[in-house]
Amino acid sequence: MEIVVVGISHKTASVEIRERLSFPEARLPDALSKMKGISGVGENLILSTCNRVESYATVKDASGGMERIKRFFVDYHGMDGDGVNDYIYCLSGRDAVRHIFRVAASLDSMVVGEPQILGQLKDSFDHALMNKTTGVVMNRLMKKAISVAKRIRTETKIAESAVSISFAAVELARKIFGDLKDKSVMLAGAGEMAELAARHLVNNGAKTVMVANRTYERAVELAAEFEGVPVHYEDLVHEMARADILIASTGSPHYILSAHDMARVIKERKNRPVFLIDIAVPRNLDPEINRIDNVYLYDIDDLQGVVQSNIKERQKEAELASGIVEEEIETFLTWLKSIEVVPTIVAIRARAEEMRAAELEKTLSKMGDLSEKQKKQVEALTQAIVNKLLHHPLVALKKSAGYPESSSHVESARVLFGVDEKTEPDGPEESSALSEAETR
Amino acid sequence: MSGVLFGATLFLYFLATFHYILFLISQRESIGKVCRLTTIVGFAFNTVFLIYQMVDKGHVPMTNIRESLIFFSWAIVLIYLILEYRWKIRVMGAFIVTMAFVLILLSTLFAPGKAPLPEYFSSGWLGVHTTLAFLAYASASFAIAFAIGLMYIIQERQLKHKSPGAFYRRLPPLDVLDELSYRAIVMGFPLLTLAMLTGAVWANSVWGSYWGWEPKEIWSLITWLVYAIYLHARLITGWRGRKAAYLAVTGFLIVIFTFLGVSLLMPGRHAFR
Q1: Which of A168, A253, B156, B189 has its Cβ near the most Cβ atoms within 10 Å?
Q2: CA–CA separation, A107 vs A100, rounded Å?
């Protein structure tokens, strides 16, 4: 049994190809069950997002399985294999596990650290669970992938810094003001990005929103959306004394706020700091304003610069995260090994033999005088019982070896025969109940 | 015994400084815990050392530069620990604890001062004690305002120049730094005022005059004026931000000069080594 990954992503294929190979949600049940029908394929799961289309599966042998899944991808979408085969990657064993963990932790994403992918992976897992196409290995693998992603989120700062213009504005506001509660935001002009930035600021605690617009009706309209206050455009400079943050995005061909005006405003504010965000092109705010103390002016390029530097920072954190992934691969592979058939058979035999020998010794010592021959017979009896009892389960296990269902057989056998104490438990209460039952 | 205590203090402050800088770089919570632990243990040794000295010598351990520096470091760490507990901004330790370590390290350059104390130390015991203690706490407050002011200046530069570097991510928000630096001065200023008043009363009792226009007295007055200007400008005209941070930094440099420079360079009845 091997774990494999077959798929395409933003790293290997253009969006045209990705969308042609994608699996719309409505067709997932069909695709999942068709894939399950492929010979040699056991458990499987399909992850289809706008940036990647991947299948995670357990197969009987890696190369044959990957080839068949690849063909399935192409055939299912009625495509000509020659065109897309080059874009499809196939990974198996350790590489496959690594890839799945990295995808879950958003290390393989276009924007490293973006949070959506984990949710998408959980959804895909849910679909597979609903359609019953996963089993012991895939379920364990998915739970592990989700926990690895969470661990990376808490132990690294991979998702901490802002990687969009509007979030960069919030991040900077926090670096200037700390807490944003009681801070008021002025919107001058209304653009989509300005509204978005204002929305983020409000979500992060900003209290009042004032809206100034050349057409007053529009200002009233927009202010209502934010439960804010409309401001007459001519009063903008005057009202700035009350605004801690200004987001300017008017279509004005010249500056709407001069350095001279701002100097007056800051004096009136008794030097309380102001954060000015100019996302208009051409710019709305005189760049000279930035020279004034306690005034911080960022235009669209400045914000872009912050975003760029944050992306670099995330990449640095990604290296740290890779180390965590490697660690977790080890623990997963150790578990995977434990559910292989042969070691399980050996462990069950050893356990049975241990019990048999102990019980035999106990009984013989109680029975007193027995001839050597009689002792031999008793011993033979115990051996015969143990062998007969174990015969069917062990033959069934042996037969399943290599087939996808072996993992669930092995898992059950380990639990039923109580040889499972060493592997990482799914829930601690289960394993402790088990050990309690044993001691009783 | 006192050598062991002092060595332990020095070593633990070194460890704390090392970890605070490591924490500033890595920002790992696990390292942050080591920072706090080493600082607290170092502070405990520092405290025991001071008590030991006081019992051993029978006077406040602030009779020469060496002793004063050690007491000064102790007061800085004390205020810092309260600050960290109250505000939970651990990165400040990278600046403040480092400063305390440098000061206590600096103390080893000065002789322990075996010579008998000048006579005026033994008279007006209570006066000398309170004066020196007020002075130490005031200076420690100003030291903290200085460290936070430096952080403000660095962070302000990053934000103004739109170059979000390593410090931009790690340092606290500007408004928080501005406020904390201000509060440290608000705390230090009345202590300095009290120190100067009790000092004058004490001077009168030993030298027969309240004020002698000694270099140290003049520089103390200059220090007092700088912080008075800071508070005045802040309260009346709303001075804050970069200029206030520069003034807080300058103020502390004058404190250091008054403390070390005047003692070492200028003669006078306050000169002690």
Answers
A1: A168
A2: 10
Side-chain-facing half-sphere of A382: CA atoms under 13 Å: 18
Residue type, A111: V
A212 - beta bridge partners? A188, A231
Which residues span the domain enclosing A34?
Answer: 2-155
Q: Is the domain of A292 the same as that of A429?
A: no
A353 SS3 class: helix
Based on the domain organization, do A140 and A198 belong to the same domain?
no
Report the distance separating Cα B192 and Cα B197, nearest Å.
9
CA–CA separation, B146 vs B223, rounded Å? Answer: 13
Helix (H) or strand (E) holding B140: helix B125-160
Please identify, among A256, A289, A307, the residue that sits at the C-terminal boundary of a domain: A307
Q: How far apart are CA A90 and CA A80, in angstroms?
A: 18
Q: Which residue has the higher pLDDT, A71 or A401?
A: A71
pLDDT tens digit string along B101-126?
A: 999 999 888 877 655 566 555 555 55
Q: At B135, which amino acid appears? A: L
Pairing of strands A52-59, A2-9: antiparallel
Nearest-CB residue to B160 (from A290, A305, A313): A290
> In chain A, how many domains are there?
3
Mean pLDDT for A381-396 is: 91
Beta-bridge partners for A210:
A186, A229
The pLDDT value recorded for residue A161 is 85
Same domain (yes/no): A276, A409: no
Tell me, yes or no, whether A122 and A85 share the same domain.
yes
- For residue A44, give both structure tokens: 């499987």
Which CATH number does the domain housing residue A212 bear?
Answer: 3.40.50.720
- Of A155, A183, A206, the one marking the end of a domain is A155
Residue A316 lies in a domain: no
Question: Tokens representing A397?
Answer: 């296990």
Strand partners, A299: A278
* Residues of B whose CB is below 8 A from A176: 159, 173-175
Return the residue of A nearest to B176 by Cα. Answer: A178
Q: Please, what is the Cα angle at B148 between B142 and B153, to 5 degrees?
A: 120
What confidence score (pLDDT) does residue B29 get?
A: 83
Q: What is the largest CA-CA distance in chain A?
A: 115
Q: For the whole model, what pTM was predicted? A: 0.77
The answer to whether the beta carbons of residues B252 and B143 sit under 8 Å apart is yes
Torsion over CA: A343, A345, A348, A352 (sign)? negative
d(CA A173, CA A167): 10
Residue A315 lies in a domain: no
Interface test with A, best of B156, B159, B177 (most A CBs within 10 A): B159
Query: CB distance A270–B175 less than 8 Å?
Result: no
Most B-contacting residue of A171, A271, A275, A324 (CB-CB within 10 A), to test interface: A271
Q: What is the pLDDT of residues A202-237, one digit of tens each?
A: 999 998 899 999 889 999 999 999 999 999 999 999
- Alpha-carbon distance of B139 to B272, in angstroms, equals 18
Inspect the interface and report whether the beta carbons of A302 and B162 lie closer than 8 Å: yes
Work out how many CB contacts closer than 8 A connect A with B. 53
Q: How many other C-beta atoms are found inside a 10 Å radius of the C-beta of residue A34? A: 14
Which residues make beta-bridge pairs with B116?
A: none
